[in-house]
Amino acid sequence: MRRVALVFLGIIGITASTMPTVVASEPTGLKIVNKSYDSESGKLTLELLNTSSLVVTAWHLSIVEGDAMGHEVRTGSGSDSYYRIVHEEAGLFETTEWEPGLIRSGPLFPGQSRRIELDASPTDDELGYSVISVVVGAVVYDDGTYEGDADNAKAILAHRAAEVAGTAKLVSFLQSETLRQLSPAELAEELMKRSGALRIEISTPSPEELAQGGAPYSVGPRTDLADQLVELARAVLRNPGKAGERLKRFADDLQLICDLSQRHLGDIAVVEHADRGGR
User: Fold this and answer.
1) 119 - beta bridge partners?
2) What is the pLDDT of residues 2-27, one digit of tens each?
3) Distance, CA of 80 to CA of 268 (rounded, Å)
4) What is each CA distance from 22 to 7, 9, 72, 103, in whole angstroms?
C-alpha cells in the first residue's frame, strides 16, 4: 500500500505507516490543533484554531505536493470572511454571535476553530508515495495586521480589491440614467441580462486602475451578485409600481458594501507576537 507523508512545521507526531506523518505548530495565531487522514479517500481533515486575541478574517495555507523523484507542485487553499463582516455591518446579514468552539463559516473569533478538508491522496505513478507539506502561510486580522508571508497576505488583499471593484462597477450600472428610464418589464430584462453576464464575467483591473496602484488580480464569476439581480428582477415584475424604489435601494446597499469594504483593502502591517495576548 502506498503511504503519504504529511509535514507541518513544528512538533512531529508519527503514526502508523498508512497514516500521515504530521507536524503541527505554525508561527501564527492560527494553529492546526487536530488532524485526521482517511487512507481510502486520501482526505486530510484539519482543525484550525484561533489562539490569538484578535479576529481572524482570512488565511492562506501554503501547500507543497511532490513525488519520490523530487518533483514539486506548489498550491494553496484559504478562506476570506471580509464579505460576511461588511454585510453584517451593513445590516444585510444577521449578526453572528460570538461563541467559542467549532464553527462552519465566517470570521474566527478568539477561541473559535474551523475544520477544513484537503485532498492528500498519493500521486498516480509507480514511484511510491507523495509528500505534502502544509503551512499556514498568512493570517489577516480584523485590525489590519497580518502574520506570515507578505506575498500571501497581499494576494488576499488583491482578491478583495478586485471583488470590490466588480461590485462598484455594478453600482454604476444600477445608477445609470438609462436604466432608470426603462419600463419595469424592460428593467427586469436588463437585470436578467446583467445577471447572466456576471455568471461568466472575469473582473480585472483596468489599465487606469493599475496605473493608480490597483491590484493586478482577477476575480471569477460573481454568482452571488448574479443571484441577487435575479431576485431584484422578480421583485420588479411582482410590484412594478415600486421598481424605481427597489432599484435605488439595491444600488444603495451595494454602495454601502463598497464603502465598508475600504478598511479591509488598505495597507496591512505585520503584527508582532508581543502585541497580542492569548498565545
Assistant:
1) 43
2) 333 333 333 223 233 334 444 444 56
3) 15
4) 5, 9, 19, 23
- Cα gap 196→189, rounded to integer Å: 11
Cα-based distances in Å from 109 to 100, 228, 265: 8, 29, 20
pTM here? Answer: 0.74
CATH class of 5-148: mainly beta
Instruction: Tell me the mean pLDDT in the region 249-262.
Output: 94
Q: CB of 20 within 8 A of CB of 148?
A: no
Would you call 53 exposed, middle or buried from its count of C-beta atoms within 10 A (0-12, 13-18, 19+)? middle
Least confident of 51-65, 185-199, 244-258: 51-65
If DSSP codes are grouped into helix, strand and coil, which group holds residue 251?
helix
CB-based contact 197:229 (threshold 8 Å): no
Domain range annotation of the chain: 5-148, 155-264
Place of cell 488565511: 59
Picking from 56, 137, 45, the residue whose alpha carbon sits closest to that of residue 98 is 56
- Per the DSSP assignment, residues forming a β-bridge with 132 are 6, 65
The phi and psi torsions of 224 (rounded to 5 degrees) equal: -65, -50
Tens digit of each residue's pLDDT (9 = 90 or more) over 160-216: 888 898 899 999 999 999 999 999 999 999 999 999 998 887 655 555 555 555 444
